[in-house]
Structure formats: structure tokens, C-alpha cells
Amino acid sequence: MAEELHLDTTLSKAEQYRHLLPQLEALTAAEPNLIANLANTAAALRQAFGFFWVGFYLVEGEELVLGPFQGPIACTRIRRGKGVCGSSWAQAATLLVPDVEEFPGHIACSSDSRSEIVVPILKNGQVVAVLDVDSDQLNDFDTTDQQFLEQLMQLAAGWF
């Protein structure tokens, strides 16, 4: 069976997420491979919303290591507490950054990135990875993105 998404760009952002999440759940339900599920999730989010960069960083010791992503090349390793991704990991909390230039210690993996949202994946109370989504537009993320991406990362926790 060919995997494909059914997207309707005429819907509101919330409705787009409401249609996308069950499709991702169905796509990943029978697949036991973590990398395959992360890769398809990154691709689906980029396809659905046209984000500049979408990817995952996996916790490995005291660093986040680049995992599956869609977009330009990226930083390979990020220390705990550094940049938006490392801060999200250290705080075990979603970080919504309207202007990355205003974030203390921002790591500029791409000078084209202007705003960012990072959502941790928690397994048994511990951060095991983070979802990083960048936009080339200022203030491109809001509480709608946060709500639905957090729901999606709750699903993703089951892949670990």
C-alpha cells in the first residue's frame, strides 16, 4: 500500500492539524521502527504546513544528536541547555520562539531561520528527543501549533 497524506490547505491551521494527526497515527501504528516513524512525521509536517525545517534531535548522553529531518542541513550535536533545542530538553517544556535572534544563546544552524518551536518527547518522565520546527518567517508559530505538536509528540513517545 502506498502511503499518502490527504491534505486540504483551505482549512484553518487547527483543522489541518485535526486531519493530519489521525493520518500520522495510522501511518505509524503498524511500524515498529523509530527512525521510519520519525522520518515520516518530519516529512508529513513539512508537506502539510510548508515549514522551513522540521526534524528530531535524539538524546544521547549529554547531547542531542540530529535525527530524521526535512530541510537544509542542520547542526549535528547540541549540548543540554544550549540553544532552543537544548533549553527545551533541559526544561522538559515546549519553547515557542517568535524571533530566534531574541533568544539568548540561539544556535544559528541556518541564518534563514527566523522563528522556532521545540517540543520535547517524554518517555517515563524523561526527555528522549525533541521535535524542532523552524520557519523563515517571524512569529510563525502559536498556541495552535503548540497544542497539536504536543499531542503528536505524546504519540511519538510510544515509538521509543
Description:
The protein is α+β, with helices and mostly antiparallel strands and 160 residues long. The protein has one domain (13-157): GAF domain (Beta-Lactamase, 2-Layer Sandwich), CATH 3.30.450.40. The chain has four helices and six strands; from the N terminus they run ααβββαβββα. The chain has helices at 13-29, 34-49, 83-91, 143-157, and strands at residues 53-60, 63-70, 77-79, 95-97, 115-123, 126-135. α1 packs antiparallel against α2 (34-49) and α1 (13-29) packs parallel to α4 (143-157). It is globular. It starts with 12 loop residues before the first helix and ends with a helix. 33% of the residues are buried.
Task: Give the arrangement of secondary structure elements.
Blueprint: H1 13-29, H2 34-49, E1 53-60, E2 63-70, E3 77-79, H3 83-91, E4 95-97, E5 115-123, E6 126-135, H4 143-157
Antiparallel strand pairs: 1-2, 1-6, 2-3, 4-5, 5-6
Provide a quick synopsis of the model.
The protein has helices at 13-29, 34-49, 83-91, 143-157, and strands spanning 53-60, 63-70, 77-79, 95-97, 115-123, 126-135. With 160 residues, it is an alpha+beta fold.
